[in-house]
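Example protein was shown:

_____
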Amino acid sequence: VGDGIMPENVGRGYVLRRILRRAVRHGRMIGLTKPFLHDVTGRVVELMGRAYPELMDGASYIKKVIQSEEERFSETLDNGLKLLSDEMDRLRDSEGRIISGEVAFRLYDTYGFPLDLVEDVGRENGFTVDVAGFDQAMDTQRAQSRASWKGSGETAVPAPISDLTASGFTTEFLGYQGLTAESELVLLMKDGDKADQAGAGDAVDLVFARTPFYGESGGQMGDTGRVRSEGAEVEITDTLRFPGGIVVHRGRVASGEIRPGLSFKLEVAEALRRDTMGNHTATHLLHKVLREELGDHVKQSGSMVSPDRLRFDFTHFEQVPQELLERIELRINEKVRENLPVGVSVMSHDEALQTGAVALFEERYGDEVRVVSVGDFSMELCGGTHAERTGDIGAFLIVSEASVAAGVRRIEALTGRGAVEAILTERRLLKDVAERLKTSTSDAPERLDRVLSRQKELDREIERIKQKAAAGQSDEVLDRIEEIGGVKVLAARVKVEDPKALREMGDRLKDRIGSGLIALGAENKGKAVLLVIVTPDLQGRFHAGDMIKAMAREVGGGGGGRPDMAQAGGPDPEKLDQALARVRELAAGK
């Protein structure tokens, strides 16, 4: 946990989740019904802190992560154990005593039980688990998820790319040095298959021997641009990086005909790349400032860097207050104004860590790594492209901060032109609001408070008028009381604003009538609304819920309710009189 791993359902995070949840379950077995693991983290940090100093720095965060996982699992543990116990009771006399894969998967999917925990409980009670059936259920769910998952960003490796990788081919990346290059087209693909030629309008994937185009990786989006050869031109809309270092340029032939073996001039869209570079450098500044402001427990948990915005996910358990977000924003803009140089060094992985460079725990690094430094302020292992100086970022503006998972927050931000445009948009909105309020922008908040306060006063006055009008209508309605079979019956069509107002009128009439049946009908938004009230002394003879059902049928609807009060509705308000007549019939015993 101190290294930034979070309990989750994939990879290393799932190993951590399994360990924690098995511990929680064993604690439950010895009577520890409340979360307890987080309470012992302090002792572990005390014992291991000298050997692993990062435990001391992240002690509070580690405790929160473990407590959150305990509480989450505790919510479903009892229900899951009951399901498993019931299943074992059902199978106890069966031959083989095997817990089905379907049940094991339901425990995993609904109650968060790792498979090995189900196996533990089963083993303790003389049962085995159908692991093959569990795997099949898991595969089925994954297939369904893949079928419905659009735009995931995951790209299957086409066979021609696999063949190229097997041959030992890799694309030489020139994008650190410049944005143009010349190279031979090594592979042309259409619809994932190898092709000999492509013409205008064809969607293509291209592999060159060398390229200045950055392939999407490390959170940085792929470059766009164009490639040209002998009267042919291809617009590149995305660039992908496949395992083995092969870069694929995805686009559409704009003109001419292309084929493998031709020499091309490759040109990256310069303005978009430079915007991306500024955003990438800004994420390094953001990471550093977050660690300084929130604590060393902050670790990068994901990122997205594109020309128009950046997104940065980081480990932290609480919402970042607005005042602190503003301080973070100001500090980053200070570093932008300092125009710090951005340098790149290539060194061994061990040497990089010794210099204090920040590495991402989930990333896989080779023996040699690329270290990006921002002045003497920040050092990170990174393979992406960056601004030459922080001044190139222009400006930094945080647009949102939110939770994306337990213990993970997300900041979205804009830089450069995007930040300036967002500020101008907000300025225009504020000016527009001020003009509508007939005041200056500086006085707009105070003016708006007065307007809202006046609005509340008017709303209260309107409510008083409505209540007075409703009381007057109640007096008028009381004149329509009839006596049927020795019971006072008030069945009337009224005018009200909504079903709530109908209930309030019914309550007032009940207080006035003393003993009897009240049936009210009204038209609201083109539909019929009905209410029946039976006073306590008559509930042995009449049931409001039963009566409302009969009324609702008349207006094409349905409903029900308690013996004393029930509401219903229907689509045909023209039949309200028939519905009210039905109450009179029921009161007469018909």
